[in-house]
Design goal:
Blueprint: E1 3-8, E2 17-21, H1 23-28, E3 34-39, E4 43-53, E5 63-64, E6 67-68, H2 77-89, H3 94-101, E7 110-116, H4 129-140, E8 143-145, H5 146-153, H6 159-167, E9 171-177, E10 184-191, H7 198-207, H8 211-226, E11 231-232, H9 233-240, H10 244-252, E12 256-263, H11 281-296, E13 299-304, H12 310-323, E14 327-331, H13 335-349, E15 353-356, H14 362-373, E16 381-384, E17 396-402, H15 420-431, E18 434-439, H16 444-451, E19 456-460, E20 471-476, H17 477-482, E21 486-487, E22 490-491, H18 492-503, E23 507-511, E24 520-523, E25 540-542, E26 547-549, E27 556-558, E28 571-574, H19 578-588, E29 594-597, H20 607-616, E30 622-625, E31 638-643, H21 647-650, H22 657-669, E32 680-685, H23 691-697, H24 701-714, E33 721-730, H25 733-750, E34 755-759, E35 765-766, E36 769-779, H26 784-800, E37 808-813
Parallel strand pairs: 2-5, 13-18, 13-19, 14-16, 14-17, 15-16, 17-18, 20-32, 23-30, 23-31, 29-30, 31-32
Antiparallel strand pairs: 1-2, 1-4, 3-4, 3-6, 7-8, 7-9, 10-11, 10-12, 21-22, 24-28, 25-26, 26-27, 33-36, 33-37, 34-36, 35-36
Length: 816
């Protein structure tokens, strides 16, 4: 009788594959185990078993598996079902979801090992230089991998050389699977059994001549008497103030025995402070309303103004769920936010908290994965960015999505292009868990769902400790420039307020949503602006590195001293970014410590922590930053927030531009005056009478919501319509134009709903690929699955048209 398993392979493929197994393997394998399988000519991949059956595949001969990698499943059925939902809803391949979900250390890939065939006669004179270098290297070591050969030959294209050596039968290849995750082992010591008897111990102490060794031994007894816990080598060397070499000498003499205990790389036990959380009256009322809402609805929106103490409510809710033995997932839009939140929650819950995001190392992420899978105590609460959604929860009780309106919850590239908030609601539904969405400025879709009673709605309208909302003052830039009331990009009003804040020993946050020094460098003689050779954008000038850089493909060049077209030396920068603000501030206030927080200054693993901690400890006077600053950070000494230019957010070619501008400005404003004193916000704008800016000034969320909803209804946008965006890319402009037109016409003929395009986006070429987009608008009452199936069929037939096969098409569902 034949036995088969169904697996997902971590490649961008839409279907699962069938492999043959023996009867014993069939009895041993469980769904969710990783299996190394051969795929293609001679590659081995880490596949995931999702089913066991006895039906042979009809289209191909089933291959045998290579090896079983796990003793227990590392993925559960909840996850597998959720992945298939993501693949279906967001129109991507199940292989992409699997690859995106697992930490890369668990996705072992085969390493091609190259070794010499000893039996073959070798004629060294027939070798080319490159072939001889590889042959010579194999004389000195038994095997090489592809990376070694790239290093030896100092070039990337080494496969033709390897192929020639295979053809001459000089070398052979074999695939080897390598386990990437290494558990952290900590070295501990204990006294050898023979010295447990008192007379042997006395004899030992008398026989030890070295004072240092005797001191280590006595220190060991002291530690052992104090705490009946295992004693690590590190702990002993620190308390005895000695080196590990002396401890090793005692191990060599068989006085101590060494042993290892596996430990987690991240531990928050030391952070815990015993304290009882007491909610204010308004918070308690909101908490009770959320509990009531959860009795009838799965999802609840907590609409609480900035600094209203939403985190305390979340903490109280988490307490309730983990006391019932449930797991809690706390999603945040930005890694920068985890720093402060982890500090707050670990003070309360200690080592019950785990953190999962891309700034953590591979090994740290695998540990969190394993802890969640085992429902361990140290992973009862998981804080993470959107990827934490894929962890193997088996007993999920609550998902909190904080700052739910944030666009960073939407994955853009690569696939799966899922929205963490929406996917979290589906995941919670599978676990029969509850979802709490929190925001001071909810997204229009969420607020619409709450108003139409699909979600529960709880409002928190007062700041914690009855602190007043900040006072917002508008500065008309047009008028200030005209009256000569500007110094660089700072209005005199803003400079006066900053000076006053410094006089009161208070801190300042300045917001400019553009990094670099300036977005354009222009020749004042001929008007030439240096462009990226691979993208249709001007190069951004970064003064700190004295270079021009493309923010789309990473191309960079040194800042030119003269114009590349007319050789004029009269070059001027136009526009400004965070770097320029930082430098101007340093000239205005040379004695003050000014720091910048944007993508350029937060590349390292702990860079967020360093900046946020030094700002919290009042070592930094002014923090200049991009939208990283706008979200949920809590600093009690910030009395002033300055928005340098409110207009560059308002005029993006996006139907959400006004909503996003309102959210961004309100969130940034909310960083001000979070303690006793009322804060102040200065918004510099050329358009102070603009509706959105007026609504921010009056904190009028309802007004913004109603106005935007009215427009969305007229122009067929969410929440009334769902959008699917197809992006086509190709290096040949004419082929792309022709192909996108073909696809548009077929879509229009087969769909009865609005299809718009093909449109050239604002940036029409990135990395030498031209871009066209097609937008499909689906009414709320249309059959979503039916429409998506039709679109998928059309895309499959588009791939079959030979002249368009090279055009890349990506599908982005709910791309906003």
């Amino acid at each position: 009788m034949n036995y088969f398993i169904e697996v997902i392979v971590p490649l961008s493929l839409p279907k699962t594959f069938t492999y043959k197994v023996s009867e014993n393997e069939f009895a041993y394998i469980k769904k969710g185990m990783r299996i190394a399988v051969p795929f293609g000519k001679n590659k081995i991949y880490t596949a995931l078993a999702i089913d066991l059956h006895q039906d042979a595949p009809t289209l191909y001969e089933a291959k045998e598996i290579h090896q079983i990698l796990d003793e227990k499943p590392i993925v559960n059925e909840f996850q597998i079902n959720h992945w298939f939902w993501i693949a279906s809803y967001y129109m991507c391949n199940i292989g992409d979801v699997y690859r995106g979900a697992l930490p890369s250390a668990l996705l072992l890939e085969s390493e091609t090992i190259i070794s010499q065939n000893k039996e073959t006669f070798v004629d060294e004179t027939a070798f080319t230089d490159d072939e001889f270098l590889i042959y010579e290297a194999l004389q000195n070591q038994s095997s090489l991998n592809v990376q070694n050969i790239i290093d030896i030959l100092n070039k990337k294209t080494v496969l033709p050389v390897i192929q020639k050596l295979i053809n001459k039968n000089i070398i052979s290849l074999q695939e080897e699977i390598q386990e990437e995750y290494k558990p952290k082992l900590v070295k501990y010591i204990r006294l050898n059994e023979q010295y447990q008897k008192e007379e042997n111990l006395i004899h030992l102490l008398d026989s030890l001549k070295s004072e240092k060794r005797k001191n280590v031994l006595l220190q060991y007894f002291q530690l052992n008497a104090g705490e009946k816990k295992p004693i690590s080598v590190k702990q002993l060397t620190e308390s005895a103030q000695t080196s590990a070499a002396i401890v090793k000498a005692l191990v060599d003499k068989q006085i101590f025995d060494e042993y290892f205990i596996q430990e987690d790389r991240v531990n928050f036990d030391k952070n815990k402070i015993e304290n009882d959380l007491v909610l204010s009256q308004a918070q308690q009322q909101a908490f009770d309303e959320i509990e009531t809402s959860f009795s009838t609805k799965e999802v609840c929106l907590l609409h609480g103004i900035t600094s209203s103490g939403k985190t305390e409510i979340y903490t109280k809710l988490i307490e309730n769920y983990i006391s019932e033995g449930k797991q809690v997932l706390y999603l945040l839009p930005e890694i920068a936010l985890t720093t402060q939140l982890v500090a707050r929650l670990t003070q309360h819950f200690g080592n019950k908290v785990s953190v999962f995001h891309s700034k953590y190392s591979n090994n740290e992420r695998v540990e969190v994965w394993n802890n969640v899978n085992q429902n361990s105590d140290s992973a009862q609460i998981v804080i993470g960015a959107r990827s934490a959604l894929f962890l193997p929860f088996s007993n999920l009780g609550l998902i909190i999505v904080d700052e739910e309106h944030e666009q960073t919850f939407k994955q853009q590239d690569p696939a799966p292009r899922y929205h963490a908030r929406d996917a979290a609601i589906v995941l919670a539904n599978a676990h029969q868990a509850k979802v709490l969405l929190g925001s001071a400025t909810p997204s229009i879709e969420t607020y619409y769902n709450a108003n139409s009673e699909k979600f529960g709605l709880v409002s928190l309208t007062e700041r914690f400790g009855k602190v007043q909302m900040p006072e917002i003052e508008l500065v008309d830039l047009k008028d200030s420039y005209f009256r000569k009331k500007m110094k660089g990009h700072f209005s005199l009003t803003l400079i006066e307020e900053i000076t006053e804040a410094f006089a009161n020993n208070e801190q300042v946050i300045l917001f400019q949503n553009r990094r670099g020094f300036s977005p354009v460098l222009e020749c004042m003689t001929c008007g030439h602006v240096p462009q990226c050779p691979q993208c249709d954008v001007s190069l951004t000038y970064h003064k700190y590195k004295n270079q021009l850089r493309c923010h789309y493909c990473g191309y960079s060049m040194a800042k030119p001293t003269n114009c590349h077209v007319c050789s004029s030396v009269d070059l001027e920068t136009k526009g400004f970014g965070t770097e320029q603000i930082e430098l101007e501030l340093a000239e205005l206030f040379p004695q003050r410590n000014i720091k910048r927080m944007d993508q350029d200054t937060t590349r390292g693993k702990y860079s967020f922590e360093k900046i946020i901690d030094s700002f919290k400890n009042r070592e930094i006077d002014v923090l200049v930053g991009t939208q990283m600053l706008a979200k949920g950070l809590d600093f009690d000494n910030v009395s002033l927030v300055g928005i340098m230019n409110a207009d560059n957010m308002l005029y993006h070619p996006n139907f959400r531009a006004f909503e996003r501008s309102f959210q961004m400005m309100t969130q940034v404003a909310g960083r001000s005056g979070r303690a006793e004193k009322r804060g102040k916000v200065i918004i510099q704008t050329y358009n102070p009478l603009h509706n959105i800016i007026q609504q921010v000034t009056n904190n009028d969320y309802e007004g913004m919501y109603k106005e935007q909803l009215y427009e969305r209804k007229i122009y067929y946008y969410p929440p009334f319509y769902r959008l699917i965006k197809l992006t086509l890319k190709h290096r040949d402009f004419d082929k792309l134009k022709e192909g996108s037109m073909w696809l548009y016409q077929v879509l229009q003929q087969n769909l009865t709903i609005p299809v718009l395009g093909p449109e050239e986006p604002a940036i029409g070429r990135i990395r030498n690929e031209y871009i066209r987009t097609i937008m499909i608008k689906m009414p709320g009452d249309a059959s979503i699955q039916g429409t998506k199936k039709t679109i998928q069929k059309i895309l499959n037939s588009f791939d079959l048209v030979s002249q368009y096969r090279t055009i890349k098409v990506t599908v982005n569902v709910d791309f906003y």
